[in-house]
């Protein structure tokens, strides 16, 4: 039996870090993509452009970029494995203005040896900024990969007043995103 899925609704939001593609099935919030992300989705045939379902997200993004919002409060539908969802839950709990290392997130999950798996789940985060994967850095303080590009990660960390190191060299990189 084939299930019929609802159409993807989407909109674009012009942010200080570029045009963000927002969307999800039947107006649900499932993804937010940076313009330069390797994981970015592109508008497909059959998608319906409609910003109405994302009005709350857009208002919160505007408040965040204006420096008035420190924590997003939204309903979303995360599509991923149980492990990925547990990582994304940990990311969502990282407070504004703070960072955690991949190892810190792995320890919080009760699996201190899972730093690489945490990095891969972090890279698969479908709602960056909202689920703040930019707040995860290397154990040595290096800025280790970011789906939206390191310039975007630096901008977001600076926006939140988070001191940070520099981008990791290829020899330092634990994860190749």
Describe this structure in words.
With 177 residues, the chain is an alpha/beta fold. Helices cover 27% and strands 14% of the residues. It is built from five helices and six strands; from the N terminus they run ββββααβααβα. The strands form two sheets. It has a four-stranded mixed beta sheet with strand order 3-2-1-4, covered by helices on one side. Strands 5-6 form a two-stranded parallel sheet. A hairpin with a 5-residue loop joins strand 2 (18-25) and strand 3 (31-33). Helix 3 packs across helix 4. Residues 168-177 have low confidence and may be disordered.
How do the helices and strands line up, and which of them pair or pack?
Layout: E1 8-15, E2 18-25, E3 31-33, E4 48-49, H1 55-65, H2 82-92, E5 100-101, H3 102-108, H4 115-123, E6 136-137, H5 150-159
Parallel strand pairs: 1-4, 5-6
Antiparallel strand pairs: 1-2, 2-3
Sum up the structure in keywords:
single chain, about 180 residues, 5 helices, two-stranded parallel sheet, alpha/beta
């Amino acid at each position: 039996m084939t299930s019929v899925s609802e159409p993807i609704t989407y909109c674009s939001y012009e942010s200080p870090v570029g045009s963000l593609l927002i969307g999800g099935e039947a107006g649900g919030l499932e993804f937010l993509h940076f313009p330069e992300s390797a994981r970015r989705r592109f508008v497909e045939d059959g998608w319906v452009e409609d910003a109405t379902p994302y009005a709350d997200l857009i208002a919160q993004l505007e408040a965040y970029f204006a420096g008035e919002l420190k924590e997003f409060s939204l309903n979303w539908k995360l599509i991923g494995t149980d492990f990925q969802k547990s990582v994304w839950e940990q990311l969502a709990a990282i407070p504004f203005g703070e960072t955690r290392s991949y190892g810190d997130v792995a320890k919080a999950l009760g699996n201190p040896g899972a730093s690489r798996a945490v990095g891969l789940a972090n890279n698969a985060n479908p709602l960056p900024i909202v689920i703040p994967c930019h707040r995860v850095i290397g154990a040595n303080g290096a800025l280790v990969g970011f789906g939206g590009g390191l310039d975007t990660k630096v901008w977001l960390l600076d926006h939140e007043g988070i001191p940070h190191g520099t981008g990791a060299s290829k020899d330092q990189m634990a994860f190749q995103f």
